[in-house]
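Repro:
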Amino acid sequence: MKFNLYLQNKGKKELLGGFDTFENAEKFLFEHAKKLSLSKSGVKVEELAETHKKYHFDNCEDVFSIIKHIEVVAAIIIKDGKVFTTQRGYGEFKDGWEFPGGKMEVGETMQQALERELREELAIKVKASDLIKTIEYEYPKFQLTMHCLKTEILEGEPNLLEHEDAKWVNKAEIDNVAWLPADLEVIENIKNML
């Protein structure tokens, strides 16, 4: 996980940097603002969430924002004309449907992360291969980068260790699933694969 600092002006958003902590991102922001002759005492902070804030400086059209960034991998497992989906069993998005996967750890490739996550979450051995799509999605509290990879089950049947439910969905059913917003972004790609 990291925290991204953005500069927004007239509809354009520019990444100024990624930082290991919110505090480091904020420190860099105020150092940058000082170089632009913007006063820390003249800033209004808009707290959108604990991990997402916007900074409005007096006499400045630019808006700076810091938001938590999470990078994850998601498995697109297709078998017999159906795609495998799981229902979240915890957290803010509990009961929403998603493609199984999880956070990447430092030093892991996308494939290694996905193979580890499915071993931990579903007790299955998989082979993750081709990247289908990378999705950038901004939720209110964090920014998500989700790499969706074609994945094949090599051993075992999915065992729900963290999810509430799971199902195989065909092309006719896929639009009737209550997908999480980021997962919805890859549905058209999957329809073309079914």
